[in-house]
Amino acid sequence: MTSILNPYLSFDGEAKEAMEFYQRVFGGELTMNTFGEFGAEDVAIKDRIMHAMLKTPSGYTLMGSDLMPGMEHKPGTTVTISLSGDEDALLRGYFDHLSAGGTVGVPLEKQAWGDEYGQCTDQFGIAWMVDIHPKDA
């Protein structure tokens, strides 16, 4: 087995909505389990997502969960997820969907280094970069 790196995102009670949003953006198979499914009876956490995993047709795996009540939540301040490649339409579509309802920090457009590049923060506070390389480069 080879090793892989998977982004694992934390949410403050929005993991279900966020992971369903990412499934609409990227497609694929989404599995989710709540704390209650694993025996938690505390009303404050039983319906929160303990673990979610999205496996996409593009080969991405994105994981996430809700934080326990009282844990600090600071999305978008230290990590940005970067998507890159030469599949223009696919990556442009991801950028459009991720930025809808969020904010665009850098519009997706041609940059000095020749790539099309943009930055956005989605509606859940997660920062994304998209870099589209020219196919002939």
TrEMBL record:
Matching InterPro entries: Glyas_Bleomycin-R_OHBP_Dase, Glyas_Fos-R_dOase_dom, PhnB-like
Pfam families in the record: Glyoxalase
Domain Glyoxalase/fosfomycin resistance/dioxygenase intervals: 5-130
Lineage: Bacteria, Bacillati, Actinomycetota, Actinomycetes, Propionibacteriales
Species, as recorded: Microlunatus parietis
Gene3D superfamilies named in the record: 2,3-Dihydroxybiphenyl 1,2-Dioxygenase, domain 1
Designated name of the protein: PhnB protein
